[in-house]
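Each field is set out underneath.
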Amino acid sequence: MAWNEPGNNDKDPWKNKGGKNQGPPDLDELLNDLGKKVSGIFGGKGGGKGGSAPSGKSMSTIGISLVLIIAIVVYAFSGFYTIKEAEKGIVLRFGQYAGTVDPGINWKWTFVDRIIPIDMQSTREMQSSGFMLTQDENVVQVEMQIQYRVIDARDYVFSVTNADDSLNQSLDSALRYVVGHAKMDAILTSGRELIRQSVWEELEKIIKPYNLGLIIVDVNFKDARPPNEVKDAFDDAISAQEDEVRFLREAEAYARGIEPRARGRVKRMEQEAIAYKGQIVLDAQGEVARFEKILPEYQAAPEVTRQRLYIATMEKVYSNTSKVMVDVDGGNNMIYLPLDKIMQQQSTTQRISPQSYSQPQQQSSINSSPSTSGRSDRFDNGSN
């Protein structure tokens, strides 16, 4: 039969455990034992005998103790927090600055301390733009961007009410100050880099007394343009300025190409003049030396030397001419010998028919005989 059938409860395992009649564990006894242990821990006295039931006062003490233990555990675990690698924590104890904590796992007094994490490594961006009045009383729309990051967490939180807003107002002030002291042409064209540097310097000068805990990493001049109503006119002016710069560059390039060639020609002409000068001086010196050699001979035999110089000169002259004039003695006629034509005719005749070469040769010898006799006679007369 089953142990739990009616009329047969002797086999109940809860009542006859270990060979004795025992019932299931009593919940009141468990709570009483736990209350005694807790009371012993907190300095209280234990209850009565094991069989007596706990009183109401002991039960309330046990409940309070459990609540306290759980509250202490929860409070202890709630105080742990983590600061990221790129951050630094500002500790506020009852609202007052109490120090900073480094990245990692830390612990705080809950409800006493408050932690403000500050990003120290990320680079932040901020822009400023608007219509501004230039030094030459023109209106221009300028847009500028800065990059910055936090270097001092305490100054960033406590120096001013809002460090980012203060930096934004300082950027507007610096930008309007620099643009107000610059001309519009410089802002739109060639002076952009100077404007950027000036804004950077002016911004650092403005924020320095406030100790914002920030550092300016970079300043970017993004855009500068005139109002839309006069944009076309300014575009034409900018195009004209660009053309001016381009023409200047082309002129400079042309000058750099022409000047070396001109200097080269000048140098060549100087060298040629020096060479010509040297040649003339050497020729004159040679003439002087030749004259000095002829002078003693002339002094010894003037007539012979004169005739010899004349003959040498005539030989030089006749060697360079193709025409000969022969004066026949005893008459008023002169014989003209076109030697160049005769030589050209001979060469032509030789190319056509070599057999016809003898007759022109005889005719040429006949024609040239008077000139030879006349020339010899003239030389003889001259020598006599």
